[in-house]
Amino acid sequence: MKMLKSMMRTGQIGAMLAVSVSVWNCTDHAPDTANYKLNDAVSVAEWKGYLKTGYFNEGSITVKSESLVIRDGQVKSGSFTIPVSSILNFNLPTDELKHQLVHHLQSPDFFNMALHPDVKFEISNVSPFSGTGENVVPGANFQVTGNLTMLGKTNLIVFAAKIDLIGDDFKLEALAPIDRTKWGMNYATESNLPDDASIKPVIDVHLKLSGKKL
């Protein structure tokens, strides 16, 4: 009987030690989670829109975020705000023409800035990626999935991205073309328009984002 009691006490002590080790290990390997903020002075989505003739206009729009969550070196969640007021044009020859184009893009024909001042993107998943091809930047290492909201409508988009974390710095580069008609932006897409007045539905978007750990 004494031997049995001794064995039971030994077993209890062993169980307690096992639990202690388990708890210690969980604490020792707690996920490293940090929040990052984009530098909106340099974080942009460069855009390019085409007529059917091949002529194009191009420019940029600012991307902002203060809620980019990175855990154990991988992006886990985040949301981005893209203010329509920040649209710029690069290629037109005069400031007057650039202003006219930007004003038109901000009008109800396109982004309807008065009713929808921001475009928004929310990450739903980031997974490892390896591959090449059209609309894949060199060195792309992750596939980003998320919801893009424009003109009050939300659609899922997926793109390959090159994401780098170096110290406290975050960088993302990606090509993410979008078909604007999926959000109801149908200006100049009628089939009976001449090529020099018909704007293609797909807008090329080149994301160049940079941020720091908070």
UniProtKB/TrEMBL annotation:
Residues 35-212 form the Lipid/polyisoprenoid-binding YceI-like domain. Coiled coil: none annotated. Signal peptide: none annotated. It comes from the Bacteria. It holds the Pfam family YceI. InterPro entries: Lipid/polyisoprenoid-bd_YceI, TTHA0802/YceI-like_sf. PANTHER family: PROTEIN YCEI (PTHR34406). This is YceI family protein.
